[in-house]
Structures are given as C-alpha cells and as structure tokens.
C-alpha cells in the first residue's frame, strides 16, 4: 500500500481551515499532521513534523504566505509548498513561486482537484491554477526574444521539455541515460539561457514555447 501523504494546513481563518482539514481527512491517501494559523507557527510545525506538503494561505497577519514559504523552503526543503489563496495578483503568484512554492491554487477549488495537486507536487510536478497560468506566461516572456529557446542546444531543449512535464533531475537522467549530476548541470545552463530563476519558471516557458498556447 502506498504511504499516505503527510499534509500541514496553514490559514488564519478558522472556519476555512477547518473546512480544508475536514475535506482532506476524508481522503484515505492523505494524513493531516497539523494545523497552523500563522507563518511563525507553520515554520515550527514544519520543522517538528516534516510534512510532505504544506498548504499555505498567502494573506496572514505577521509573516505573510510568501515570507513563510521562503522560510519553510529553506528549513524543510523536502516539504512541497502549495499556496491555497484567494489572491489572483500576478506579483503574489510570482513572489510565491520564487519563494519556493510548487503550486498556486485558488480557493474555491474542488476537493478532488486539490488532492490531485497535492499528489502532483509530491511527485515533483508544479501547478498554477489555469485561470492564472496564461497571464503569467505572458508576464514571464514579455520583453524577451521572440523565441527564448533559440540559444538552447537540442539536448537542452529535450531536457527542458521533460522539466515542463514535472520530472525530477533523477528521472530525467534515467530517461536519457545520463547522471543526475549531469542533468543538474544542464538545468543550470537552461535557467541562465532563459533568464529565469527557477525550474517552475522554466517549466512555464516550456509549456508556452514547446507545446504552444492552449
């Protein structure tokens, strides 16, 4: 039997937090390891309980979600952070992803979709709510060359396509017959050539330019 995914829920609104907890408790593949109402409390619980996934609100008193995401990502790099928020602001979305979040989900999402996102980020995927993704792609590629991939080698394009599918360096290496260290070197070059800061941003560029607009 597959081991249950350990989830920490962080939101300063008790009723909303209770609703998320209740919904996830009904899912047999998920185990709730804690609840927090602030970023400070979330970091402490993340360190103590090492969740697989942290569901994190972006608007909280004290540390906001972006500050909290950055601190949890630094202290607990194995924990995947998913922002669960009502904010559709592009700067919040970009800030969260740059802080280390692997997912950005708008409140109102159905439980089944949220569970799918949780499973996906644990498997190494990245997720942005579809209503925000296309706007973000435009923002990320604004002012760049018509084809930001033109500087990439064929091998780098191949690896970027696999990054766009959410694959880890190890999995990419296994698929291409290369070492994980070699793939990491390729990824560093790809990020520099695309002038992006993270795999998440690279994956979004891949989705736009390798697969075409939806």
Describe the structure.
With 214 residues, the protein is α/β, with parallel strands linked by helices. The chain folds into two domains: 5-129, Rossmann fold, CATH 3.40.50.2300; 143-209, Arc Repressor Mutant, subunit A, CATH 1.10.10. It has ten helices and six strands; from the N terminus they run βαβαβαβαβαβααααα. Strands 2-1-3-4-5-6 form a six-stranded parallel beta sheet, with helices on both faces. The longest helix has 15 residues, at 180-194. The termini are far apart. The model has no long low-confidence stretch (mean pLDDT 86).
Summarize the structure.
With 214 residues, this protein is α/β, with parallel strands linked by helices. 53% of the residues lie in helices and 14% in strands.
Whole-number mean pLDDT: 86
CATH class of the largest domain: Alpha Beta
End-to-end separation:
36 Å
CATH superfamily of the largest domain: Response regulator
Could you please say which CATH topology of the largest domain applies here? Rossmann fold
Strand order of the largest sheet: 2-1-3-4-5-6
Number of strands: 6
Shape: globular
Q: From the helix content, strand content and strand pairing, which structural class follows? A: alpha/beta
Query: Can you tell me the number of structural domains?
Result: 2
